[in-house]
Specification:
Blueprint (H helix, E strand, L loop, with lengths): L1 E4 L4 H14 L5 E4 L16 H16 L2 E11 L20 H12 L6 E13 L2 E14 L15 E3 L11 H7 L1 H15 L5
Parallel strand pairs: 1-2, 1-3
Antiparallel strand pairs: 3-4, 4-5, 5-6
The structure holds inosinic acid.
The site of inosinic acid (IMP) has 17 residues, from β3.
Length: 201
């Protein structure tokens, strides 16, 4: 059977593929959006990670008639009242890059007292055409640091120090990150739900 990971974000796709590769049955072919015919993109107009993850999973499941796993995730900073939240990808505007988002985040935090506590949150949803069949949330707590460190990962990883560790997320290997990350937790739970419901035969 085929399973679509609904993302064009290369960092995310690599992490999810690594996660699935380690725990997935041989009879499941894992695809990403570039592997399938072009389709319309959904409007992520939800106010929560869960709403957006459901919108994406249901959209691609219906358009491509396939079992689809989508995630929506982001960074929630306490001193900013939970921002950038669902706007994390486009925090610095429609043409934002990871570097611009990080620069804006540090600019906003600099006048505020430390520690800059924060969390990465991820909601993963699995859907078939017309219905959600599994949903799970993952969360990892930490702190924003004032200078980026590390080369691995993507997004805000270089400025997110994991609680209880001296390392930023970008100083962890993909394998280490998957073990502790918000996305690792959420995707593992969804796959377990799919397996328990007999989806993989
Ligand atoms: P999404 O594609 O709408 O889920 O966008 C999520 C955005 O949140 C990404 O583009 C990143 O800016 C940020 N983000 C989510 N997960 C991570 C992560 O694991 N590391 C760093 N940044 C993340």
């Amino acid at each position: 059977m085929k399973l679509l990971i609904a993302t064009r974000n290369r960092g995310k796709a690599a992490e999810i593929k690594a996660l699935l590769g380690s725990g997935m049955q041989k009879n499941v072919e894992v695809l990403t959006l570039p592997d399938l015919p072009a389709t319309t993109e959904p409007r992520e107009k939800g106010k929560t990670f869960a709403e957006n993850a459901r919108i994406k999973a249901l959209h691609y499941a219906k358009e491509l008639k396939i079992l689809c796993v989508a995630d929506d995730s982001g960074l929630s900073v306490d001193a900013l009242g939970g921002r950038p939240g669902v706007r994390s990808a486009r925090y610095a505007g429609e043409q934002a890059t990871d570097e611009k988002n990080i620069a804006l985040l540090l600019e906003e935090l600099l006048p505020r007292p430390k520690p800059w506590t924060a969390a990465f949150v991820c909601v993963a949803v699995a859907a078939l055409p017309g219905r959600v069949i599994a949903e799970a949330t993952g969360r990892v707590d930490g702190e924003i640091v004032s200078a980026p460190r590390g080369e691995s990962g993507f997004g805000y990883d270089p400025v997110f120090r994991v609680k209880g560790s001296p390392k930023t997320m970008a100083e962890h290997t993909t394998e280490e990150k998957n073990r502790i990350s918000h996305r690792g937790q959420a995707i593992r739970l969804v796959i377990e739900e799919l397996r328990n419901s007999g989806m993989f035969g």
